[in-house]
Amino acid sequence: MSLREELEARVKGSAERLPPDVLQTMLDVTRRLVDSGIAQRALNVGDKAPNFKLPSATGEEVRLNELLDKGPVILNFYRGGWCPYCNLELNAYQKRIPDIDGLGASLVAISPETPDNSLTTAEKGELKFQVLSDVGNKVADQFGLVFTVPPELQELYDKFGIDIPKYNGDDSWELPMPGTYVVDKDGTVTYAYVDADYTKRAEPDEVIAKLEEISSKE
Question: Do 133 and 120 form a contact (C-beta atoms < 8 A)?
């Protein structure tokens, strides 16, 4: 199955499992975020990616400019290890690590979770790429991805046992929209996928195709 098919199956399963009022609340919140136009204001193709320094799940300091010295970089912003859609996405990219490595590129996943929670995500998913902690969403904000979870969704998450403040180490209730970027060695964004609907993600095949295009020009 493609990632898109896996995500669609998850959406269908949730629609069948959740009470109608809960499902409607979640759909309404997503629709409002989409209608706000926030995704269209995020960093896009042709923009320069801001350099950053973030801790990895294992405590290593990771700098974007140092990764770019080695080749193109895929930046995958995800909401957190508590998000099943994010885990499907991370797993799909994990399967493509041989392709990514073979094209001289690297992949880093970024969430607002604390390093300890990022480590849990990396270990559970047996991820072989860097999982970085953007506590406070400072880097995600530079990419234009950050929004505040509205009160009605905060209430639902509490009922689901999803403690966002605990996962993220702050009480802001801010999350990033899922976003996937390919950044070329000169720091230019050559591929951007941002969608305010968290059930939609960049297909790995599309990202790999962009890396192949970059490689063919070298």
Answer: no
